[in-house]
Amino acid sequence: MLSDAAMHRSLDGILSRLPADQMSVVASTQAVGWESIHGVITAGRLKEFFDSSAPFHIVAFWLKGATTIEWKRGTRFTRFQAPPGELLVTSAGERNSIRQHHPSEVFSCCLNPERLQSLADQECESHGQTIEIVADFNRDAELWSLGERLAARLRSPIPGSRLFAEALVTQIAIKLLWNYSSLPRGNHAPDEKLADPRLRRVVDYLQGSFAEEISLDGLAQVAGLSPNYFVCAFKQTTGRTPHRYLTELRIAKACKLLQNPHRSIVDISLAVGFSSQSHLTSVFRRFMKTTPAAYRQAVLGYRTTERCARTPQSA
Q1: DSSP code of residue 197
Q2: Under a CB-based contact definition with an 8 Å cutoff, are residues 71 and 98 in contact?
Q3: Strand, coil or helix: what is 163?
Q4: CB of 199 within 8 A of CB of 137?
Q5: What are the residues whose beta carbons fall under 8 Å from the beta carbon of 239, sequence distance 6 or more?
Q6: Does residue 113 sit in helix, strand or coil?
Q7: Quick one: DSSP state of residue 56?
Q8: Do domains 4-179 and 188-315 have the same CATH topology?
Q9: pTM score > 0.85 for this model?
Q10: Residue pLDDT, tens place only, 12-24
Q11: Closest to 98 measured CA to CA, from 131, 37, 50
């Protein structure tokens, strides 16, 4: 069992490595004497990649300041926008490092893996299965609201606030188990939406597979569902069929690549998964109401990607 003292030492170790000229600690659970709760509010900007790997799970809640985050986890790299209301979930023991483009204020709530497992065993019918947390980033309004309330109480603790904070941490842990874990979910109704971690696995797969032939069976296997149920759940969640979603991703990627005047349209067509320039042109015209060549001329001539297809929200 990872003790409270060990949690505090590990968190202190991470904080001690923060560049003092870039980041400051606004408030911490240790400073206010909340021994069984672990978290910190930090403010500033990490200009270089900072190793935030930890032996505990972390839910980071963006409180103030919009920024762009670059996130490395293992061999994977993700860039995403982080306005207030965004959150990032990282898993215990996984290699994580981040840097950010602009200053922001973030509350990092740290959760003991053993206690989370115990909670899953007691409350969520895990049946002894080891629970894994799925790393993710998104705008989860319910979960973010819990983090924001906990951060507000951490800034201004009052008598009885520790018990209030413990209740909020328990709710955060339950939300994490429901929506960001490998917790078995039993028999789903046919019209139930795809769980966020499963959707994220599918989206990550799609984003890394623009130039490949992608089958429905392959996507269903990534999600861990039957093909028929996967199609229904995916559309319920995204509002698109898997094929439509992938096509939008490819067109959005093509828009970005067309901004490079030195890259041929033939090369771009193949890079984003179309069989030829004519294939890209046909699909591009259907989505963008113009051709790739005309789009490139407009972009390079007098504006940026205002007409570019919007990347789907979960991408």
Answers
A1: H
A2: yes
A3: helix
A4: no
A5: none
A6: helix
A7: S
A8: no
A9: no
A10: 999 999 999 999 9
A11: 50
Architecture of the domain delimited by 4-179: Sandwich (2.60)
Please work out, in degrees rounded to the nearest 5, the angle formed at the alpha carbon of residue 223 by the alpha carbons of 219 and 99.
100
Place of tokens 């917790």: 183
Helices assigned H by DSSP within 156-276: 161-179, 196-207, 216-223, 227-238, 242-257, 265-271
Q: Which of 38, 27, 180 is nearest to 110 (CA)?
A: 38
Q: Cα 19 from chain centroid?
A: 25
Identify the CA nearest to 100 among candidates 135, 139, 60, 57: 60
β partners of residue 106 = 42, 62
Both tokens assigned to 223: 């999600």
**Gap between the Cα atoms of 2 and 153, Å rounded:** 25
Classify residue 284 by its DSSP letter: H
Sequence-ordered alpha helix ranges (H) in 84-160: 113-123, 141-155
Phi, psi (deg, nearest 5) at residue 79: -120, 130
Q: Which residues of the chain have pLDDT under 70?
A: 1, 124-128, 184-196, 210, 228, 301-315
**Is 188-315 in CATH node 1.10.10.60?**
yes
Nearest CA-CA partner of 85 in 128, 122, 30, 140:
140
Tens digit of each residue's pLDDT (9 = 90 or more) over 152-202: 999 999 887 888 899 999 999 988 988 888 775 544 433 445 555 777 788
Distance CA(142)–CA(125), nearest Å, equals: 22
Nearest to 76 by CA among 220, 203, 248: 203
Q: Which of 103, 72, 102, 107 is nearest to 86 (CA)?
A: 107
Return the structure tokens found at 182: 């490998």
Domain-by-domain residue ranges, the chain? Answer: 4-179, 188-315
